[in-house]
Amino acid sequence: MTEVTQIKIGKHTVGLVGFKEALSDMAEAYAEQPDDMVAEELLNRLSKKNYIAEKVQKDYRRAFVREFRKSLGQPFDDESPEGLEIKILGEGCAICNSLEDGVREVLSEMSLGADLEHVRDAEQIAKYKVKGTPALIINGKVMSTGTPPSKKNIIEWLEEIGHRKSPGGTMDKPVLIKNITFSEPHNLSGLVDYEEGRVVSRTFAQNSSLSLTLFAFDGGEEISTHTAPGDAMVQVLDGEAVVNIDGEEMTVGAGQVVVMPANIPHSVTAVKRFKMLLTVVK
Fold it and tell me: What b/e string do you get for 1-37 counting C-beta neighbours within 10 Å, with b at 16 or more?
């Protein structure tokens, strides 16, 4: 059965048949080709198996280039303020983890949803050719390297690309669930893929009261010891992990849940490949 891949096109998430196969086939030959050639080739290939209306082809072309560059670990431009993708590069030191916590706090304070990924694998980090770590990348643009930016800096950068906090600190509209298509059934575990040497995440909701994130850990990968401003519930979907809460270790597997109390040090380490849905309530 041909695999269907979900990607974001403008404001919407759509499923495309044969997308990953096309990326893999083109990786070597098109890695150094200009964006317009990449977009045209992907459009030609994918139009054979997917209906892509002429009036939306411009949006598809932009998304195709974005996903192609992402698959190769290359920088990419994404001018649309509708999407927000943030990467933190760092092998897991205390400073790198502190930067991740700071970004999550900013997203919560600004009531923003984002695809947030902490890239810890040294080989993957090298592909970005940054001058030092921790590094912060927002929508494909390197914003800082070596020295972690302040929360004020992060807020300013987000506002510059069109992501602003609602006036008075309140939201103008109800919290929305993002990065998942509406009105159709999904296999939750299948919405995030394992990647060698990485922790991959997909954020469904993030605001001042709640965050909802799906994670896939390669074996041996971890979220190192930290604290969270709210109670965090881990729901295990696949595999097995060790959860450490204030020095007490427990092994959890598929079908189990464990709650990590607010402001108590905790960590999660994959015994083998492991997926979880993390819900943090503040």
Answer: eeeebbbbbeeeebebebbeebbeebeeebeeeebee
Q: Are 53 and 87 in contact (CB under 8 A)?
A: no
- Tokens encoding 4: 């269907």
Structure tokens belonging to residue 252 = 């959890």
| Contact (Cβ atoms closer than 8 angstroms) between residue 120 and residue 219 | no
Pairing between strand 231-238 and 141-145? Answer: unpaired
Q: Enter the pTM of the model.
A: 0.49
Amino acid at 217: F
pLDDT digit string, tens, across residues 192-241 = 888 888 788 887 887 778 888 899 999 999 888 888 878 999 999 999 99
Cα–Cα separations (whole angstroms), residue 167 to 6, 141, 243: 33, 27, 39
Length of the chain: 282
Please give the single-letter amino acid code of residue 257: V
Query: Peptide bond preceding 265: is omega within 30 degrees of 0, i.e. cis?
Result: no
**Quick one: tokens of 273?**
């490949």
Going from the N-terminus, what domains does the chain have, and what CATH number goes with each? 4-72 (no CATH), 85-169 (3.40.30.10), 188-281 (2.60.120.10)
- 154, 162, 174, 180, 213 from 171: Cα distances, Å: 20, 16, 7, 21, 20
